[in-house]
Amino acid sequence: MSNMKLFDPYLSRVLYIDLTRKRYWVENREDIFEEYMGGVGVATKLLQEELPRNADTLGAENVIVFAVGPFNGVYPIASKTVAMFKSPLTGNLGESHAGGRSSIAIRMAGYGAIVIKGASDIPIYLAIHGEKVHFKDARALWGVRSTYTIGRVLREREPGSGYRTIMRIGRAGEELVRFASVVVDSYRHFGRLGLGAVMGSKKLKAIVISGKRTIPIPNKPKYREIYNKIYKAAIESPAMKKYHDYGTPVNVLQLNALGALPTKNLMTTKFEGAEEISGEKLAETKLARRVACAHCVVACIHIAAIREEYPHEKFFYTVRYVSYDYEPIYANGSMLGISDSEGLIRVLEEIEVQGLDAMSTGVVLAWATEAYMRGLISKEDTLLDLKWGDWKNYIQAIRYIVKQPNEFYKTLALGVEEAAKKYGGLEFALSFGRNEMPGYHTGPGCHLGWLIGARHSHLDNAGYSLDQKLLSKGLPTPEEYIDSLMKEEAWRQVLTSLVICLFARGIYKPDIVAEALNATGYEYKVDDILNIGWKIYKNKYKLKLELGFDPLKLRIPRRVLEVPTPHGGISEEYMKRAITYFSQKIKKFLES
Amino acid sequence: MRRLVVTDPELCVGCMSCMFACSRRFGVAGLAKSAIYVRSIGGVERGFTVIVCRACKDPPCVVVCPTNALRKRKGGGVIFDCGKCIGCGNCVEACPFGAVQWDFEENKPVICVHCGYCVNYCPHGVLAIEEVGE
Ligand code: SF4
Ligand code: SF4
Which pLDDT belongs to residue A1? Predict the structure, then answer.
């Protein structure tokens, strides 16, 4: 393992871009790509090298790293790019993953990672076509209302159709909304933790990347054999079929039946309108097309059509498209009490137009609605009535979050934690480590997972899934629960360094990963891979603590302890014991 | 003889699985050696177009090749002789479908041989192999 050489010399090339000086250079970083493979492992390392720990998240000193890994462009469903940065929402480590064509485009352009530093004086966009990097004037694109328009303009203006990715921010990123997203190609996102605001602060409106090349393979027959094995498993897996048929919204009815679907700011866990916004119903009434990320056979992306007649022009229709997924449906459907599927899709459209994170947006609005109902804020603040189910007003509120016409919306644009600190209602402000909550109230595991996960995301360690598996058995001790969450998170560092889509985690088991790596020239055994996972986990947590994270200071929103889950009520003592145990364990782990 | 046909591009989800398969014929990964090309029709919401050799009976690319590197194939399409090809790119220009892809690493065209390898990797039934006689 020690004298291993990468078989693809292009994977270890890191493209550094300095927006302040408008210069770029390439360095060969075989050292880190050999040790950490790629993706999250490499991005963490690069961020550790480049990021001043006290950097202003919206200042020139913040750094964005994009990274892909050895499986992108090589194996099926390895379709993700990892982005890491310091999050303007949490002030801590930011990590977000996106699909579309991004990972293929970066690898085909001849890079394993891209590091973006500094800030431009004028709005620009980056056009990276293979070896060439262009800094292009984006002054005319700045302020354009919709991310759809930006996508369309760049599609026509830049070469590389079919082999490229187009990442762009919307008005939300320009206005530094702390939960602004980056829209990737059509309908994928670096959604969480505010990468859009970081790009906005750097005056970086968009990034286009394209390329086409061969990735050499040392063991060709073996490669084809293991490829076929993975491919077959993917197309035969029932989980994959489910995601192809209904997409992620297949979870709406399942979670609702369990009593685990956060509804109306988690005042309850069953939504009377669940049927209307379910994957099944949307497939029947709204679905227009299903598409896939590059090199993914599942094609889980579901796109709805809005067909609308012009009010003053009979027989004249606009047909517009919006993608939908489980998390946006939870955050803006059940959480906001919207059961009108047409209304919900329009809310999602506005979020896409503005370039916001759909999850944070919904959770922020859900808090605002409850705070408004309780009289903590008034119409002078909100400028309109916030009422469960009133999607028209929610669309207007979304515009206000971006435009920030008064003190209230300025605060809302900082995230739910800041808003509740200022206006009250912290006990029902649903954020974990300052990141707004994902769509599960399955038991203590999901909440613990978000509290201790390195990016406070449901994808860190899948507590929500463990909760559901434990339903028949009952809960383990808090210590045992933490142990299994940490173990899962360590393994996910491997998967997100390769970089596969986590939907395929059931296929990419450790022995398959080892075999697939071997065929492409990595001499790792299963144990080596597991060790790499723990090493990355350690690096990440080290960085997290250096950025000021303290598990003992975590806030558990009162609301999650009050509302019963399928496991019954969550006891505060259970949670406290778990977190204390975690904080000791992580300390020891970092010292080891 | 057999030829590759695109049965219904409306079913295409743009996964590029066929493109990766075509390069994998040679045991390599990536996309540089792929004869088949899928791109959106101006945004994925409008669907995809699948561009590949149509096995013309009277192929225009043959006529413009100055070195006879392309000759007619029985059953339609062309057979490519790499040793004769000087990389002029005339064939790319001549194909009205834009079905001649370019391998920038070799500076040579990539021509579909109608082997059908990609068909096995289209999970959505967009591609098929058809018997066409001589
Ligand atoms: S038939 Fe063969 S050569 Fe033609 S596109 Fe498919 S895999 Fe490539
Ligand atoms: S494999 Fe099939 S669905 Fe995928 S891009 Fe090719 S033709 Fe389209």
Answer: 47
Q: Which two tokens stand for residue A349?
A: 């459209």
What's chain B's average pLDDT?
A: 96
Cα A278 to Cα A148: distance, rounded to the nearest angstrom:
26
Query: Is 0.95 topped by the overall pTM?
Result: yes
Peptide bond preceding A499: is omega within 30 degrees of 0, i.e. cis? yes
Amino acid letter for position B100: V
> B27 to chain A: which residues are within 8 Å by CB?
217, 220-221, 223-224
Alpha helices in A67-168 (DSSP H): 102-108, 147-157
- Are B9 and B48 members of one domain? yes
Mutate which of B37, B110, B117 to test ligand 1's pocket (most atoms within 8 Å of Cβ)? Answer: B117
> Which residue ranges of chain A lie beneath pLDDT 50?
1-2
Q: Identify the CATH class of A9-210.
A: alpha beta
Q: Are A146 and A321 in contact (CB under 8 A)?
A: no
ipTM surpasses cut 0.85 = yes
A223 close contact with B: CB closer than 8 A? yes
Tens digits of residue pLDDT in A512-557: 999 999 999 999 999 999 999 999 999 999 999 999 999 999 999 9
Which atom of ligand 1 lies nearest, measured to the CA of B25?
Answer: 7
Query: What local confidence, expressed as pLDDT, does residue A239 receive?
Result: 83
* Calpha distance B130→A458 (Å, rounded): 47
Ligand nearest to the CA of B39: 2
- Structural domains counted in chain B: 2
The correct answer on CATH 1.10.599.10 for the domain covering A435-591 is: yes
Q: Where would I find the beta strands (DSSP E) of B27-77?
A: 29-30, 37-40, 48-51, 70-72
